[in-house]
Design brief:
- The protein is of the alpha+beta class.
- It is built from seven helices and eleven strands.
- The protein has helices at residues 23-27, 43-54, 56-61, 74-88, 103-107, 156-171, 194-200, and strands at 13-16, 19-22, 31-37, 64-70, 96-98, 132-136, 142-147, 174-175, 186-188, 206-209, 212-215.
- The strands form three sheets. The protein has a five-stranded mixed β-sheet with strand order 5-4-3-6-7. It has a four-stranded antiparallel β-sheet with strand order 8-9-11-10.
- It starts with 12 loop residues before the first strand and ends with a strand.
C-alpha cells in the first residue's frame, strides 16, 4: 500500500506499552505523531526517544498525541525505556507500539510484503526503512511524512515547526514560506482571490509579485 499526503492513515489494532489500542480511536479529536524505529536498543533512536519525551509539554500545547513504533515486542520496549531514561534523562511516557509480526510496518509501507511476518532474526539494517515520522490530523488523514536513514538523528524541532505550519494552514487560508517559524509573516493562499483577500486583510499586504502576497500571521 502506497501512502500519500491527504490519504487516510491506515487504522490498526496493536499492543503498546500502555495496553491495546485501536489507532483511530486512540487519536480521537487530537492530532497525532507516529514515529517508527527499526529495532529496540539502537543508539540513534535512543537519543530520539529521549528528546521526544522531553518535548511532552510542547506536543500537549498543540493538542498532539505522540506514539512510537518498533518492530520488537512490547516487553523489549519496557527494558529499552529504562535505558532511555538513564542515558537521556527523560522518562518515556508516550505509548510504544510493539510490531513483532511487522504488520504495522508493512501496513504503513515501511517494509515490503516480502519482509515476512516476524521480527525474529532481523537486524536493524534489515528494518532500516522503518524510520518514518507521520503527522496525522484529527480527520485521520496523513498531513506530512518525514523519512530518515538510520545514521541520521531526526530533527524533532523541525517536526514541531512543521506541525505549527500544518495546524495554522488548516485553520486559515495561508501558506508558510521557507524557514518559517511561528509568529512570522505568511503567504495568502493562491486559492484566495484578491477580492476575498481584501475582505480578510483590510490593511492590505505586501506583494513583490502578484502571486506572492505576504501578510502577518493570523491570530
Amino acid at each position: 500500500m502506497t501512502l500519500r499526503i491527504n490519504a487516510v492513515a491506515p487504522d490498526f489494532t496493536a499492543t503498546t506499552t500502555q495496553g491495546t489500542i485501536r489507532f483511530h480511536e486512540w487519536i480521537g479529536d487530537s492530532w497525532a505523531v507516529l514515529f517508527s524505529h527499526p529495532k529496540d536498543f539502537t543508539p540513534v533512536c535512543t537519543t530520539e526517544l529521549g528528546y521526544v519525551a522531553r518535548l511532552k509539554p510542547e506536543f500537549a500545547k498543540r493538542n498532539t498525541k505522540v506514539i512510537g513504533l518498533s518492530v520488537d515486542p512490547v516487553d523489549n520496549h519496557a527494558r529499552w525505556a529504562a535505558d532511555i531514561e538513564e542515558t537521556q534523562g527523560a522518562k518515556v511516557e508516550f505509548p510504544m507500539i510493539g510490531d513483532p509480526t511487522l504488520a504495522v510496518a508493512k501496513l504503513y509501507d515501511m517494509l515490503p510484503e516480502a519482509a515476512g511476518s516476524t521480527a525474529n532474526g532481523r537486524t536493524a539494517a534489515d528494518n532500516a526503512t522503518v524510520r518514518t515520522v507521520f503527522i496525522i490530523g484529527p480527520d485521520k488523514k496523513i498531513k506530512a511524512m518525514l523519512i530518515y536513514p538510520m545514521t541520521s538523528g531526526r530533527n524533532f524541532d523541525e517536526v514541531l515547526r512543521l506541525l505549527d505550519s500544518i495546524q495554522l494552514t488548516a485553520k486559515h487560508q495561508v501558506a508558510t514560506p521557507v524557514n518559517w517559524k511561528n509568529g512570522e509573516d505568511v503567504i495568502i493562499a493562491g486559492s484566495v482571490s484578491d477580492d476575498q483577500a481584501k475582505a480578510k486583510y483590510p490593511d492590505g499586504w505586501k506583494a513583490p509579485k502578484p502571486y506572492l502576497r505576504i501578510v502577518p500571521q493570523p491570530k
